[in-house]
Amino acid sequence: MLARMDGGQAGYWRDRLAMAGELMEAFQTGQALECTPVIRELLRRFAGDSKWDVRKVVANGLALIEDDVFDELAPRLLCDSNAYVKRAAEQGYSRRRQRLRDVHKKESADKRVARRLSRLRRDYGDDAAREVFSLSESRFCQLAGSIAHDLRSVLTHLRPAAKGLAGGWDNGTDHAILERKAARVVEGLAFMERCVTDMERYTESLPVERHPEDLAEVVTAACEMARRNIEDLGFDSHMVVLRQEVPDGLWLRISRYLMILALSNLVKNAYESFMKPQKYLRRGEVTVFAEADGDTVRIMVRDDGMGMAAEDLSELLAFMPRRRNKAKRKSTGFGVPIARRYVEAHHGTLTFESKEDVGTTAIVTLPRTPPSGEDAQ
């Protein structure tokens, strides 16, 4: 690229635009891992190009560039005379800050794990620490293996569909066939995106800031979210009657967002109990009700769906994301584990009762007041 530019072979701005795009794509895909002197010079030239379209390509990729080169190019692009370039640089700068925050959070999490292992060794000895580490590693392997299996199964279908789609336009393949292949690719990518979103929710740290909330409103929002989610998967939610029986005036100090997500996952799971292999919902009923009992509140999500055998219920209570089954092909398996994490972040518990061909009840138990000694936020 540099030789072409020095040799006058990139006088047309579209040639420079293509080269800039190719260079930034190399950073995006990991083909360019460091800024060599040649790459550094190319970035300087593209960032100072007379055509704003070329400068914008570098601005879009600011988050990918090494620190010392970033420090050199960012001030120039953030003050660019072209509004599009400036906006792209601002967005790239924001993405970079977010990436640095994510790295810092990961490093902090690693340090917390190291401190907890040190405390375990100190309080219970090396054998206990090794056993805990082994158990954690085993659970990680289960999680990674489950996700890898699901993603592999999606990729197995995506690859031939994508290849057929790419080559179909040239060999005159029937449009209906191409549309089916395209739909398969879109569906597979949507599932992979849901997996990534659920993995992020499952692994994120949970500092819980709590405020007084009307439980009836929270349940209504959770049910509406579950209904939208199930319809986004292509199912008719009206096949299942959804009832809410939450008394007025029942207030809890909770994180509204986390509790809505937790309950919506449980309601969506109840919807999924009516899924048939033919990709539709059979008729059924889901009831969400709550009751106060002294210092606790119980929220129950009950369905009369397929239910679970004792073995499946035992596996569910391990609260590990599970591989998809034929009846829940569009489920990532993270719904219940995420709900458990969010409920336990409120010092609550999540349990299940189920009987095959009868139905399932998810029971969320929450304290009405913060635990002793904890500051109410």
Description:
The chain is of the alpha+beta class and 377 residues long. It folds into 3 domains: 2-97; 125-203, Helix Hairpins; 211-367, 2-Layer Sandwich (Heat Shock Protein 90). 58% of the residues lie in helices and 14% in strands. It is built from 12 helices and 9 strands. The chain has helices at 2-6, 13-29, 37-47, 52-60, 67-78, 83-124, 126-168, 175-203, 215-232, 256-272, 310-316, 335-344; strands at 211-214, 240-245, 251-254, 275-276, 280-281, 284-293, 296-303, 349-355, 359-367. The strands form 3 sheets. A 5-stranded mixed sheet has the order 2-6-7-9-8. The protein has a two-stranded antiparallel sheet with strand order 1-3. The radius of gyration is 26 Å and the shape is globular.
Please outline the helices and strands.
Elements (H helix, E strand, L loop, with lengths): L1 H5 L6 H17 L7 H11 L4 H9 L6 H12 L4 H42 L1 H43 L6 H29 L7 E4 H18 L7 E6 L5 E4 L1 H17 L2 E2 L3 E2 L2 E10 L2 E8 L6 H7 L18 H10 L4 E7 L3 E9 L10
Parallel strand pairs: 2-6
Antiparallel strand pairs: 1-3, 4-5, 6-7, 7-9, 8-9
Helix pairs in contact: 2-3, 2-4, 3-5, 4-6, 6-7, 7-8, 9-10, 10-12
